[in-house]
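Lab notebook, page 48
Experiment: co-folding of the full assembly
Goal: obtain a model of how the components sit together before planning crosslinking
Operator: M.T.
Materials (sequences as entered):
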Amino acid sequence: MGNLRGKLLPPALAIVFSMLLCGVALVISGANPLRAFGAMVTQVGKGTTLVDIINSSGIYYIAALAVAIGFQMNLFNIGVEGQYRVAAVVAAVVGGSIALPPGVHTLVIIIVGALAGAAWAAIPAILKVTRGVNEVISTIMMNGLAIGFSAYLIRRDVFGELRGNNIRTPEIPESGWMPGISFGGSGTMFGFLFVAVALGIGYWIMMNRTRFGFELRASGESSTAASAGGVNAKKMVLVSMLLSGAIAGLIGLPEMLGRDHTFSLNFSAGVGFSGIAIALLGRNHPGGIAFGALLWAFLDKSGLALDNVGVPREIVTIMQGSIVLSVVVAYEVVRRVELAAEQRRVGRELGTVGGAA
Amino acid sequence: MSSSTSVRTDDPPAVVLTGITKRFPGVVANSDVHLTVRRGEVHALCGENGAGKSTLMKILYGMQAADEGTIEVNGEQVRFRTPSDAIKAGIGMVHQHFMLADNLTVQENVVLGAEALHGIGQKARKRIIELSGSTGLNVDPGVLVEQLGVADRQRVEILKVLYRGAKVIILDEPTAVLVPQEVNELFDTVRGMQQQGYTFLFISHKLDEVRAIADSVTVIRRGTTVGSADPKTVSSRQLAEMMVGSELPSPETRESTVTDKVVLDVKGLKLMTPDGSRPILDDVDLVVRSGEVVGIAGVEGNGQTELVETIMGMRKAGSGTITLQDKDLTKLGTLARREAGIGYVPEDRHRHGLLLTQPLWYNRILGYQTRKPTANGIWLDPDGAKRDTERIVSEFDVRTPGIDVPAAALSGGNQQKLVVGRELSGNPVLLIASHPTRGVDVGAQALIWDEIKRARAAGLAVLLVSADLDELIGLSDTIKVMLRGRLVADADPNTVTPEDLGSAMTGAGSTSAAVQETAVVEEGEN
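Observation: model returned without errors.
Model output:
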């Protein structure tokens, strides 16, 4: 099936290409690339690495879905990073200060997180719709604000408390936690991963089976054709930005509900930016994003093994970067080749002469 | 008539194309084309839309490389990789769509990209003034292009190629943007330049013009040259038959089906430029009745596009009301207007009509994402969309191997048939068709005309905007002339001639009884 080939070939090419690139970089720096890659692969079976990879890929998956919704209509929500940070701190504060029965408590935290993320995303969305402010610029600036805002919220004189050397929000009572699946010494898988899977399925249904998904894709493909077809561009910007922000608001929750039960200074950062890369890698497709998230998490976690064989761990960052760059190029090349092949095929089947120009 | 005395037969021909073949994905645009242009003549290249004329000229001008065949200029075989190679060999092209920067002066436009020839200062200016004479351009080189009319812009385009040293000038559909009076002026210019030794390749599908200006004619059909003719002896009918290869389609509608049931009622519609400095639509009143085709004639850029887009809700009117069958649409969005029963064939199907990389059935949903058979509440109905796309493909003769191919893979005519088929789905009460047969092949043109006529007979109201005056006169029950954002005159399609319409379109006024002015046209054009 040519269609499937068109989808799988580019990422495969990109990964091979970036492995070669990293191999060259390793050789130049005097290391043995085969040994380095081998160490990364064998690391997967050691300790908690496999479960860590799966947990981490769940988080990346949610982040990439948030980015992908915007990407579908060429809306670049660079602010996922800030949205999930603000959402996480707000959800932690609310979750830590209320008492509710188990289940309901968790649900409330999830809803608060989504609403907070959407609210933070609403600011650039409204600016774009009413004043035409470019969302790339406004969301990047909102990221800066988010760091300051979340730091302010966990100050001891606001909502935070000092525990050891760390400032954090009050701990969420056990009724608000989300239980995971324990594998004993191999670690515990976050229960929130099921939410991530459900989000992926919901995303697929929305994109392929609903009017909203159609309008989103049409806007991304051709904003002019969409507007002639009755798609309200402003409404689409607003709704997709809010939806993107709401999903971004869930990114911090797997760790918070499954492990940390609080928002602290050493809350993981940068996931929103990884989400952008993974959405690109997965071509905004829920399956592709899952693959991208797994790959990203594998590189992150297995990269730790590189120190053991005397190879700088930063080689992983080079690899991640080169994968994204080459996948973007590869998709474009394959897309053009496939379109030309399709046109030739149509021409052949119809046997037409003339009718061009 | 043209001066055949200036045609020199003893010299090697200016241009010889031999066995040119060019394949595009999906189609063979040119196959085994032969063309000989003698020095100093006006050689017309005739063919229907989509016959492959433009492709051939792009090959001659170095914009595209031929897959097979040779090009000879002045007896020497040449190989053009880029237009600058062609320019060096003395070939210049005036494109159908002008390539001028409005915010630069005439001189800046002419010099742009050719600074090496005479610099950008006084020397360049002197040369431009020298050459202006032969193109009939009587404006100072310091004037901004945005202040020029269409005919003068075209002269600037000709000036550009002369400045670059062209001796052979390709005019690609030069009259498409001109009204008949301007066409005559252009022809005077061409004849004058012919006396000075320039050679012209004149691309057109308008046979009267070809017979008026050309010294020889080559006819191209379905991508290949089918013969040449002497324009002095051949009749338009014979030429047309060579071009089409069979009987000509005609846009003529037979008996009137106009009823007194008002479908579209536009009152006092106003639209300002984004900066609010001047009106684009100025107090437009328009009524379209059931079974009636109302044609809008006008030189491009006089507000027709904006009128259509305002009625569709894609632009927000400053004031005025739009009513469809007693339903006030003024405050509704595009989707609600479509749901109220408007079908819309946009003037640019690539920009406004299709999602090019999506399959045909997915395109069927566009504009119908809230209605059966393509949707069910908030849910899409891909099966329904596919079934209905199959119906359109068979009823409208869309030539495609299947409904899963991307829209971009189809030829222009088949894309347009798909769009027209889609917009006639779901029983619209009003069809707004902008240039519905622009850039489509003759078969698709005939089919689209037939479908519009059939829908009209079934009671559809049609608002037709077209630059093709024959199409407009043939299809319309009423013609309104648009000038500078206003409907300035009504014309009776049974009696009006393209020349009368042309006068009214430029605001020159008309003495013809077939054109009745409905508004006073202000004096003092640019």
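Interpretation: Chain B touches chain A through 58 residues (CB under 8 Å).
Next step: discuss with group before ordering constructs.
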